[in-house]
Amino acid sequence: MDPVVVLLLSLFFLLFLSLWRLSSGRGKLPPGPTPLPIIGNFFQVDMKDIRQSLTNFSKTYGPVYTLYVGSQPTVVLHGYEALKEALVDHGEEFSGRGRLPICEKVAKGQGIAFSHGNVWKATRHFTVKTLRNLGMGKGTIEDKVQEEAKWLVKELKKTNGSPCDPQFIMGCAPGNVICCIILQNRFDYEDKDFLNLIEKVNEAVKIISSPGIQVFNIFPILLDYCPGNHNIYLKNYTWVKSYLLEKIKEHEESLDVSNPRDFIDYFLIERNQENANQWMNYTLEHLAIMVTDLFFAGIETVSSTMRFALLLLMKYPHVTAKVQEEIDHVIGRHRSPSMQDRSHMPYTNAMVHEVQRYIDIGPNGLLHDVTCDTKFRNYFIPKGTAVLTSLTSVLHDSKEFPNPEMFDPGHFLDENGNFKKSDYFIPFSAGRRNTVGSFSISLYCRNTSLIVRGPRGTKALALSTKQTAWLRTCPRGIGGVKTSY
Fold first, then answer.
1. What percent of the chain is helix, strand and coil (3-state, nearest 5)?
2. Which residue positions does the secretion signal occupy (predicted)?
3. Of these four, 101, 131, 144, 365, which has the most CB atoms within 10 Å of its CB?
4. Longest dimension (CA), the chain
5. pLDDT, tens digit, for every residue of 310-348?
6. Is the Cβ–Cβ distance between 430 and 87 less than 8 Å?
7. Distances (CA, A) of 450 to 100, 156, 324
């Protein structure tokens, strides 16, 4: 048979199969826009503003609808009620981790972020337990944060009020706190290995958060054959994991089972215990990916939040003045802030929450999937179906936050000026797959307070030209570039 005829018949068969799969599955799933064969709804979604596209679809199809990523269906949850019902009320069914091929290529089902089932449950349990043993939520980590905040302010003072971009310095601070927890020691801001680590993490996160990377997640076959910055991400991730694996092997040689020093030691000690969790993967590779996840999750997220907090405080001097007044009144200028001060500083606490709400740093969170065949709001969602959660739709809900496009700490204050909690405050998702790393938020809170207050004689930070231009426009959802999350 003529090769051309064979090719045409093969293409026709693939097209027919794609159409059949789409038509057979759509009747059971929530409604959504009509997908095209092979590419699904790819051209109907604005990859540069996925959040707005999701909002537009929700106006037509409701708070629960289906988009096709290539030939694979993805159920989208839009709005507080839909997210709460799925992630909290049906937390077990929606606790799976959706596929992100570029991340699976390096994680291989290991670590915290991209493991599954019982392995993920055991890994998360160990991580939370160990972080608590190391002082998460206690004074131990608080001391480390306070010390690092002093180093950060000292580094910022070196600018002498000249225009600067504090992005890289802001990455060093949370990076050092994470190093103290995982590797026992902090590093000098001029240490070459440390600077290389921070640079590669920041570059990798920037790449994986870019809209263009979605093409490779939709068509993963391109990962191995096409050039692109995804190769830089893979290279950087591999470098970070290899660097941490070397540190793990150094820990093995100096391990004292009666005196665990850090996260790595706790893992190495537990893997040799008779009562070790049978579902835990106690290989050094798994440990290396676990600690790599902690670096990737903590450094860029916290540093970006701190950086945009500074920019917002510069743009809104009346907010800065109120924060400054409260800090001076409660903390003064001769000691470091502590978590005990938070209950006495409602406006500063509200400002911190409003920054995280407003910048919307992870608009869609990481993909979930359902762990079993699930009935949800009269729809049937087959096991393994991807689930995308629009966190933006909750953080910018106009019923909970009047004028959500405005930066206003009053969104978290009651009529008496007291701090007001909100169930809609879910910047890092909710339920069983929410972010393990609340210690990072503490780091951000304390560092922001220190920089706003500053020691006596500290000149105010000046802005670079790029930052000045940003302040003139101050777009909604500053962190919204993170479309892959």
1. 55, 5, 35
2. 1-25
3. 365
4. 86
5. 999 999 999 999 999 999 999 998 888 888 899 999 999
6. yes
7. 38, 11, 10
Q: Alpha carbon 201 to chain centroid distance?
A: 13
Distances (CA, A) of 314 to 12, 143, 203, 468: 59, 28, 26, 10
Q: What is the DSSP letter of 466?
A: H
Q: How confident is the model at residue 465 (pLDDT cuts 50, 70, 90)?
A: very low
CB 63 within 8 A of CB 389: no
pLDDT of residue 350: 97
* Integer CA distances (angstroms), 186 to 177, 191, 290, in order: 7, 10, 19
Residue 445: which of 328, 338, 332 has the closest Cα? Answer: 338
In one-letter notation, the amino acid at residue 239 is W
Closest among 466, 367, 481 to 166, alpha carbons compared: 466
Rounded Cα–Cα distance for residues 230 and 227 (Å): 8
Q: Could you report the per-residue pLDDT of 160-185, keeping only the tens digit for each?
A: 888 888 888 888 999 999 999 999 99
> Strand order in 96-97's β-sheet?
64-69, 72-78, 386-390, 368-369, 96-97
- The H-or-E segment that residue 178 falls in is helix 167-183
Q: Is the Cβ–Cβ distance between 213 and 102 less than 8 Å?
A: yes
CB contact at 8 A, 51 and 480: yes
CA 346 from chain center: how many Å? 26
User: Which tokens in the block code for residue 428?
Assistant: 């890092």
Work out the average pLDDT over 200-223.
86
DSSP classification of residue 340:
G
- Quick one: tokens of 283? 């290989």
The conformation of residue 86, written as its DSSP 8-state character, comes to I
Is the whole model's pTM more than 0.70, yes or no?
yes
Nearest Cα residue to 123 out of 27, 1, 244, 263 = 263
* Confidence label for 10 from pLDDT (cuts 50, 70 and 90): low
CB-based burial of residue 472 (10 Å sphere; 0-12 exposed, 13-18 middle, 19+ buried)? exposed
Nearest to 87 by CA among 480, 367, 404: 367
Task: Please tell me the predicted confidence (pLDDT) of residue 201.
Answer: 92
pLDDT 10s digits, 420-456: 999 999 998 888 777 654 444 444 444 444 444 443 3
Distance CA 88, CA 94 (A): 9
Rounded to whole angstroms, the Cα distance separating 183 from 295 reads 11
Residue 266 has pLDDT above 70, yes or no: yes
d(CA 292, CA 269): 19
